[in-house]
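hi! just following up on the protien thing from before. the input was this:
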Amino acid sequence: FSIICRDLGYKVTGIDARRTRVPFHERGIDWIISDVSTLDTIEADTVLYFGLLYHLNYEQQVDILSKIKSNTLVINTHFAIIDNNGDIKNETNIKSLSIDETLKYNGVIYKESDSFESLASRPLASFSNLTSFWPTIDSLCDMLKDIGGYKEIFVVEPYLMRDRTYIIARK
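and the predicted 3d structure came back as:
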């Protein structure tokens, strides 16, 4: 998406914690190599937040959503599916999911890895945490309103996968 946005004439800044995932050969894109959770703010007219949210734990998600300063936020993420009985209905690696009822927002805890050493060799896994949080769609919308201050939230349907979609939030 960074390349497409650049080709459409947008000023693009990409952020990734892993240098090996960055296409430095692409001109016209500014790259920041950093764990996004260590940044003070993430400021732009529009932020594309793709494939990262579901790799962060609950605290990191709350922190980063409070740091994003944009009029429009587009998220691509997995989300939790929990039925009325409290049963997890995600098909994605179901054995790695559990519910934490102590959190303010509903969702599931996803086990990213057993050790930090194995995370280093998995470029598509989380960067600095062994578990991540997948909020339900309703909880993610509440997080965007409560933490991010977004007033309009659109959930794109049909979903990309049974438990993955785009969400567009505007202030």
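The radius of gyration is 16 Å.
Helices lie at 2-7, 58-67, 116-120, 137-146.
cheers
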